[in-house]
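User: I'm putting together a teaching handout on how multi-component assemblies are represented. Below are the sequence lines for each component of a complex, exactly as they appear in our records. Could you produce the 3D structure of the whole assembly as structure tokens, so the students can see both representations side by side? Please keep the chain order the same as the input.
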Amino acid sequence: MVPIDLTGKNAVVFGVTNERSLGFAIGKKLKAAGARVAMTYQGERVRPLVERATRGVADRLFELDVTDEERLRAIVRELGQSWGGIDAVVHAIAFAPRRAMEGKYLETTKEDWLKALEISAYSLVAIVREAMPYLNEGAGVVALSYYAAEKYVPKYNVMAIAKSALEASVRYLAAELGPRGVRVNAVSAGPVRTVAARSIPGFTLLWDHVEKVAPLRRNVSQEEVGNTGLFLLSPLAAGITGEVVYVDAGYHTIGIPDPGTLDV
Ligand code: NAD
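Assistant: Of course. Below is the structure of the complete assembly, with chains in the same order as your input.
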């Protein structure tokens, strides 16, 4: 057995709503590996829910709207100083106005386009910049992406463009932070039933489609995404950076689905 021991390491997960959140799934694994874990959620209203869901996993909880850069800076400073450094950062934040996901991509307004890119992609740059002074040698950053970053997926619209920007940011940040011994990667997860996923029109159709045609003939679990996040943030992945690792039951490797798998 090759154990992952993160005892004495400090991790912060940005973007947790409940126990189904992919950020929570990674945080849970980091905690099980021995790390100290902080999590952020959005909106004081959901605090009791988040507290209940993260009990025994999150050592610290912070409310954060990631567009509030002063608040972001204060949280990262508080963690970096009180912990004496940060070893793992998880970016699990995405948002696009609903109307931008329902209509045609061509009809996306400038306001909605910028909002989606700001929250879902620029926030990674802001988080990493604020965390930089506190990141220990060997630290890792993981962001969560989706296949629509590279191929057309119906209804994904502006969120697809945000994921493309997120993945490109991963490569640029990896190049800039690499010389300081910090790694930056993305996990591209297949469809998983979460609050954010429910806001994607046609999510159930997508889910059913993957189950039929993916090489493993199923969807992936939160736990599988959590395990890959843990791996990328552990010394086992010390030679991996600037990478997008797919956890999608092999779906992205399919060019033309096996005709036997489609109801046509
Ligand atoms: P989720 O709803 O549990 O998490 C999304 C989080 O983003 C929430 O905690 C929400 O509060 C946070 N967020 C949104 N706007 C914010 C803001 N302005 N400030 C701070 N936080 C904000 O859903 P999830 O599916 O776990 O999403 C996590 C990540 O995984 C997202 O980047 C998502 O795109 C990605 N992802 C999800 C799937 C899937 O099928 N669920 C697949 C691939 C990638």
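A couple of points students might notice: Strands lie at 10-14, 36-41, 60-63, 86-91, 135-145, 183-189, 244-247. Residues 15-17, 21-23, 41-42, 64-67, 92-95, 119, 144-146, 189, 191-192, 194-197 surround nicotinamide-adenine-dinucleotide (CB under 6 Å).
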